[in-house]
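Recall from the previous lesson that a structure prediction takes nothing but the amino acid sequence as input. Here we apply that procedure to histidine kinase from Alkalimonas amylolytica. The sequence below is the only information supplied.
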Amino acid sequence: MKLQLLQTASLRQLVLSSFVLALIPVAVLMWQSHRALTGISQQAVEQASNSAASVRRMEQMQNQVVDIERAIRQFAVLKTEALARLAQNHLTSYQQLLPQVCQSLTESSLCQQQELTLQQLHQSFTQQSAEQLEPLLQQLRQQQSRLSQQIWQQLERQLAAQQRDVASAQQQLTWQTILLVFITLLLVIWGSRRITSPVTMLERMIRAIGRQQAFPEARVQGPKELTELGEQLRVLAGRLQQLESLRLILLRHASHELKTPLSSIREGCSLLTEQLVGPLTPQQQEVVTLLNASADRLSQLTEQLLDYNRLLQQAKPELKWHPARAMIEACVQDHTLALQQRGQAIQLNCQVEQLYTDGMLFRRILDNLINNAQAYGAENSEVRIDLQQHEQHWWLAVANKGHSIAPEQRERLFEPFQRGQSPRHDQVLGSGLGLSIVADCARLLGGKADIVDSPQADFCVRIRLPLPEELV
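The prediction returns the following tokens.
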């Protein structure tokens, strides 16, 4: 029941309950510390009070011994009733203090001897002379000195025992602190896992949606808000998958179904252009020329759609070593005629001998970049192709003169079906897939495509490709 409540609790309730659970060991530690400090302080106060009382009684007894000796010696000389009563009073006071001191001592033999000496003095100080009483008085002084010594030793033992108790309490508090801190850490880890685990699951779901991977089957287990968000992401993933399937089906079928009638149209236009079915008037030839141009444009758009569809379906590139210059020159050769029609020349700067890449994806990048430079570049200008190694990457840059692109519009041009505002110069209406194909090919190769500033050109696309591990 408690586990179910934790699973259905809100994020706020889970955070608050985690904090409360983590504070319980801290509260226990504070209570234990307060109790231990209170016990030690009470013991110290009681011990100090007892020690002060013992020292005070010991000083009184020492003073009483001096008073007893003085009074007995004076009585032995003067023999007056007043001195006799004074000596009796001092002996009685000492006898009253002696049990109070002796009850705190561990040894009682010395107290018994002192008590016997006091009784002898009571009985004999009025009958004997000073010389006869001197041994008893000396014995009284010596026994009092030993009593004082025993009291000091007893106080020292009590102080040592108190120090041991304090050390034991400190050690106990230390172990309790370590244990409770460990318990607090476990509770914090448990509470954080209750929060981070569903967040990690949501991150996996979002990453799977973004990379068009298989959506995780496991459901989010945690706070109510995160559980609901996980279900919404699951619904969204299903919807996106349906849309992606419909888009691929539409691209595949539309492109494939267009090729057959398009081929027939181009063959018919070719027959009409060559006048194999009969002579044409100038007006008819102009119409056929427009049909040929439209058919060529439609064929190019269809090929781009098929190419984009194949690119989306390619999951993993086939990497191997290729001669860099030969691969670039072969691609440039295919575009020579279109470049010559606009008076454009290729200036190649290849500083890399071998390139570890997927040949088809790299060729797609070059084809689209050269075609883009030929269509949007200025007439009678140069198209620069640079391939060089920079730190841990290969940089492929294709630059041309023409129209520059504002920085805030550069990222948008790499999105599908997005075209710039600059006009084309090849009489073909672009589809907006060229730079998108370039960016997707670079991504499949582990790199990135960017539009960068170049001091020698108005428009420059730079492809950053990673070096293989053996060259890093």
